[in-house]
Amino acid sequence: MATRLSPAGDWTGTEQRSCLARHQAKRLLAPIPSLFGDTAAVTCGRCSGRDKVEDMNVTKWWVARWAIALGLAATLTVWGMGYGARDRDPNFAFTLHDMNGVEVNLADYQGRPLLINFWATWCTPCRHEIPAFVELVEKYKAQNFTVLGISVDDKPEDLIPFAAEFKMNYPVLVGLGHDDLQEHYGAYSLPVSWFIRADGTVDYKHTGTQSKDWFEGRVKRLLEPASSGTGQ
């Protein structure tokens, strides 16, 4: 950007104050190292004629910062974040339909160790963990353990062939249109899993996917006496 001069060839008072403010801001930023070049160097674009270059550097710096933030958010979604059990109690006062149109009351599953999993057919991490759920339901069915797979974004006609392909051996419920259910269970990023003990207490809430061994470890905790503690 070219520097505007007063008729006498000097900067106006406003321009001088603007330049001084620019210097002061850059002096404050100068000690801060940048991962993307020294964009905080103490130079004056108005004096050096480098306004456009510095503006481009700053723009690249901010774009890179946002790219890192978005990448981190995506990584946390895939690899998962865990939450303690004490933030919210489960609510079984919901009635849904399964993929075959049969009415299902969540309250019917109270009193047994349970994993409530919020998912969708288009969700790659969700697809990754379903085979593990199938194995765990089969392995621990004698202990009355089961999974409730609540799809938040699929119609029954999409769920039926999907469940057949993945050999899902646990209830597949239609959560589409039940925003109050999704809000209560915090099913904003998928997948979301709630591990609930037979006494109705929440042992753990997890956002993201994990390995089969990790899920089996959480299921084993549900089968332990409640006195062993929760939310670890």
Can you give a write-up of this model?
- The chain contains 7 helices and 8 strands.
- The chain has helices at 13-29, 45-48, 51-79, 124-139, 156-165, 179-184, 212-223; strands at residues 81-83, 95-98, 103-105, 114-119, 146-151, 172-174, 192-196, 202-207.
- β2 (95-98) and β3 form a beta hairpin.
- The termini are far apart.
Structural class: alpha+beta
Tally of alpha and pi helices: 7
Query: What level of helicity do the residues show?
Result: 40-55%
Poorly predicted runs of 5 or more residues: 1-9, 25-55, 68-81, 228-232
Write the CATH architecture name of the largest domain: 3-Layer(aba) Sandwich
Biggest beta sheet summary: 8 strands, mixed
Strands in their spatial order, largest beta sheet? 1-8-7-4-5-6-2-3
User: What is the β-strand count?
Assistant: 8
At the fold tier of CATH, the topology name of the largest domain is: Glutaredoxin
Beta content comes to 15-25%
Q: Averaging pLDDT over every residue, what do you get?
A: 76
The domain tally reads 2
Which CATH top level class of the largest domain fits?
A: Alpha Beta
Which tags fit this structure?
alpha+beta, eight-stranded mixed sheet, 7 helices, 8 strands, 41% helix, disordered N terminus, disordered C terminus
